[in-house]
Design a protein that fits this description.
Layout (H helix, E strand, L loop, with lengths): L1 E9 L9 E5 L12 E6 L2 E14 L12 E2 L8 H13 L4 H6 L15 E2 L1 H6 L5 H4 E2 L7 H8 L1 H11 L3 H7 L23 H13 L4 H6 L4 H12 L26 H16 L3 E7 L5 H14 L3 E5 L7 H11 L3 E4 L5 H13 L4 E4 L11 E6 L17 H12 L2 E6 L4 H8 L4 E5 L10 E6 L14 H12 L3 E5 L6 E6 L16 E3 L4 E3 L6 E3 L12 E6 L1 H11 L5 E4 L9 H10 L5 E4 L12 E6 L2 H5 L6 H13 L10 E6 L5 H8 L2 H15 L6 E9 L2 H18 L8 E2 L3 E8 L2 E10 L3 H7 L10 E5 L3
Helix pairs in contact: 1-15, 5-6, 8-10, 11-12, 21-22, 22-23
The structure holds adenosine-5'-diphosphate and zinc ion (ZN).
């Protein structure tokens, strides 16, 4: 008998389940196929799975009985063909299981919360005091429904069981929007409610469509509450647009802001992109445009073209919370055709946005790296802004780089991809120089203002004049001048907290984290010590635990310290700190930037967050307090990152009419990175850096992979790394690709969260043959190994 068989991948993160299992698709679920999420019986449990392929087969000859798919999770295929292909690439390139890659496309790790069954051990109840509740419940035996469980267990036990073993009912209900058993294909459009939009929100949308942009007060008169307006904005735009006078102003479809007349350079770039969009084929571009050359406008015009052609566009930005200006500009032009995807959204918001993308209602998607995992309809353009930015790389498995995955997507979707930057990564610029991607350049700022003048301040000749060692006399006088002229300044220091090291002045004891091999950072505002690695907090010690001395030195100044020093030297200046600590609250980053734009304070200082693409009028001065602290990071990318950060940060100054000024403080004024950055000479920097990369065999001349073993027991990590090392040495001679590996080495911070980390760095012209050899080798199936392809 011919039957329809599905190959199903089980959604369980096990390296041993990296294969599919066959299930029968029953008649009632005929519509289901590749990409659908389903529920199946697997190893006597209900598990969620994903259908990866479907075929017809004569099952009468089979010696065993195939199980049926029990139900379907959604009323549509969650995965498109392109999404599955992207996931396949991620799993094969980054060496993770397919389910790890596919889960990136989920809103939640599991779509169906499988109800855990529980039962009671009556014998135990009779013999032991009820206090030992945990021992009474066995999660694996029979299942009971809530009501009968409550009858059997009594209230207290039931509460315990609920908290520990049962998923909340509402979550379950939300996961099964359509009852699983009664699954049917909907033959009608989804109602607003099903789309997750309330009736009132729909009314508001209609009202705005009919009447255009409205002040909030008017909407309130009409009976729309502030909460509703806020929810609506989040729903429609992914964020509420915050404007002057502390009111929310609504931006409707028509848009309030006018698009701009393009400069000649912009025009050329836009034309090249639009032509490419028309060709419906993969093509790679690098848009290399100096800071302030108007790259955003190029992206916008190209996205508009994709939209007019009935397609969609994806625009990736490194940190969307910091790009409020760009997002509100796009929202003002495209209205509800644009959605924002980022980690700051709730699951509900993300789910709604995803549905808008899938239905084609919102074909323009702006987001951080995870925005690549959306069900794009007819994707015609991908933009990766600030392509060199390290936040595109995910720090946990799967350790993918959003920029590189986006390149593969462009091939899969047959569309152009634009990598944009003022200072492209060496690898990307090399690809452009080799003709692998097309180069578009914009050399002039929109307002023709020259790039800011960068003064290198040699701290050996101009020693810092403050107690923290952060601020030199030339910097102070430039800041004084800035304030006097009623302009604004930005200061960058790449260290959070008040002091990065506390040391006892009598015995030299350094206060270290008990779990990690790092010193604790003193945070003055919270008045406590924090570990930036394991995130534990500790009270400020009154005395040294070793010698009981009470004079404790605060070394290594961080951002909090700048505040104090500025207050001493520039008592009249209004200053605000901008770092992870001061922006934890939702929207606080946006509020600080808005206040700065509106002139509510004069100096914005903080970590590299201050350097991102902000376009704030009146910023004439930029101070980079310690260029050396970035140069010293232990990575082959240190030089590139320093050059980029200096350029990026300097690029905030003098963007409109008047040339800006930058002071770059360093103890290494003759370092080639500092020299090139000071002259804004990307080409020389590139040439020099490329020479080093070639000499030392780093990307783009080699590919890298880092294999890391970790363990509570240092010896175990060592011996595991030794086993991997000898395995590598035994296979490397028969691999193609000129593969080499280092001996095992301890990470710069050897112990984090009480785990020891030992790594091996692998290099090669190509790592494909090595990856193939590693796959299926038991050594790499163990869980205490991290494989990082293209590590940073
Ligand atoms: P980049 O990202 O290249 O550093 P932006 O895209 O932020 O530069 O643009 C810099 C400034 O120039 C912004 O304030 C933008 O609104 C403005 N701008 C861009 N293009 C034009 C144009 N064609 N005409 C007028 N202003 C423009
Ligand atoms: Zn720690």
């Amino acid at each position: 008998m011919q039957e329809t068989i599905a190959e199903v991948l089980i959604n369980r993160p096990s390296k041993h389940l990296n294969r599919t299992f066959s299930y029968r698709i029953p008649e009632t679920m005929k519509g289901a196929g590749v990409g659908w999420r389903c529920v199946v019986n697997f190893a006597r449990r209900k598990e969620e799975g994903i259908i990866l392929s479907v075929h017809e087969e004569d099952t009468s000859q089979l010696s065993y009985k195939l199980l049926d798919i029990l139900s379907l999770v959604d009323s549509f295929p969650w995965f498109t063909d392109e999404m599955i292909r992207t996931a396949l690439w991620i799993s094969s390139y980054y060496m993770c299981t397919l389910i790890d890659a596919l889960r990136l496309f989920y809103i939640d790790k599991k779509a169906v919360k499988t109800k855990i069954t529980y039962t009671v051990n009556w014998e135990k109840i009779e013999k032991e005091p009820v206090e030992d509740i945990e021992g009474l419940v066995d999660r694996s035996v029979d299942s009971l429904d809530d009501k009968s469980a409550a009858l059997l267990f009594g209230d207290r036990l039931m509460e315990y069981v609920k908290q520990n073993f049962l998923i909340k009912k509402e979550t379950l209900a939300a996961a099964h929007k359509i009852p699983l058993e009664k699954w049917i294909v909907p033959d009608r459009e989804l109602t607003d409610k099903e789309k997750g939009r309330s009736r009132k929100q729909a009314e508001l949308s209609e009202f705005l469509k009919a009447h255009g942009s409205q002040p909030v007060s008017r909407l309130k008169e009409k009976g729309f509450s502030t909460a509703l307006i806020h929810a609506f904005l989040l729903n429609e735009y992914g964020h509420a647009v915050y404007h002057r006078k502390e009111t929310y102003s609504l931006i409707t479809r028509e848009g309030e802001k006018k698009e701009k007349t393009l400069t000649e350079e912009q025009e050329k770039a836009v034309k090249a992109l639009c032509d490419s969009i028309d060709r419906k084929a993969y093509e790679g571009f690098l848009l290399k445009g100096v800071t302030g050359s108007g790259k955003t406008e190029v992206y916008l015009q190209a996205a508009r073209h994709a939209l007019e052609e009935g397609g969609s566009a994806l625009i990736l930005v490194p940190e969307i919370a910091l790009t409020s200006q760009m997002t509100s500009y796009f929202a003002s032009i495209f209205g509800d055709k644009v959605v924002f995807m980022h980690s700051g959204l709730s699951k509900g918001e993300r789910y709604n946005n995803r549905m808008r993308i899938m239905s084609g209602e919102s074909p323009i998607v702006i987001g951080s790296r995870s925005a690549i995992f959306m069900p794009f309809k007819n994707l015609r353009l991908i933009v990766v802004d600030e392509e060199y930015d390290t936040s595109y790389k995910q720090g946990e498995t799967p350790r993918y780089n959003g920029r590189d995955a986006a390149k593969v997507m462009a091939v899969i979707y047959h569309c152009p991809i634009v990598l944009g930057a003022a200072t492209p990564s060496i690898t990307t610029y090399y690809a452009a120089c080799q003709g692998k991607i097309s180069l578009l350049t914009m050399k002039e700022r929109v307002f023709k203002t020259p790039l800011p003048q960068i003064h290198v301040c040699d701290l050996k000749e101009n020693p810092p004049i403050d107690r923290s060692g952060l601020i030199s006399a030339p910097l102070i006088s430039l800041l004084q001048k800035t304030i006097l002229e009623k302009n604004k300044a930005i200061l960058l220091l790449n260290r959070r907290g008040f002091a990065t090291t506390l040391m006892c002045s009598s015995c030299g004891h350094v206060f270290k984290c008990p779990n990690c091999d790092v010193s604790l950072v003193y945070h003055k505002e919270m008045n406590r010590l924090e570990c930036h690695y394991c995130e534990t907090v500790h009270p400020l010690p009154g005395e040294c635990p070793v010698c009981h001395g009470t004079r404790i030195l605060y070394l290594g100044a961080g951002t909090e310290r700048i505040e104090e020093e500025l207050a001493d030297f520039l008592p009249e200046a209004r200053v605000r700190r901008f770092d992870l600590d001061s922006t934890r609250r939702k929207n606080s980053a946006r509020e600080i930037l808005d206040d700065f734009r509106q002139g509510k304070f004069d100096i914005l200082f903080g970590t590299q967050m201050v350097a991102k693409g902000h376009d704030i009028p009146g910023v004439q001065t930029v101070g980079i307090l310690s260029a050396d602290s970035i140069l010293n990071i232990p990575s082959y990318l240190a030089a590139e990152q320093t050059f980029n950060l200096i350029t990026q940060c300097a690029g905030r100054a003098g963007r409109s009419r008047k040339q800006g000024e930058v002071i770059l403080q360093t103890y290494n004024p003759s370092h080639y990175v500092i020299q090139c950055a000071a002259r804004q000479d990307y080409e020389s920097f590139y040439k020099q850096e490329l020479r080093y990369r070639k000499l030392l065999e780093y990307p783009p001349f080699a590919r890298l992979m880092k294999i890391t073993c970790f363990n509570e027991d240092e010896k175990k990590a060592d011996s595991q790394a030794a086993r991997i090392h000898s395995w590598l040495q035994s296979v490397i001679p028969r691999l193609s690709g000129n593969v080499k590996c280092t001996a095992p080495f301890s990470e710069p911070i050897k112990r984090v969260r009480n785990l020891y980390y030992i790594s091996i760095l692998v290099k090669g012209k190509s790592l494909t043959s090595l990856k193939n050899a590693m796959r299926g080798t038991p050594l790499f199936e163990e869980n205490d190994i991290i494989i990082d392809v293209d590590p940073l």
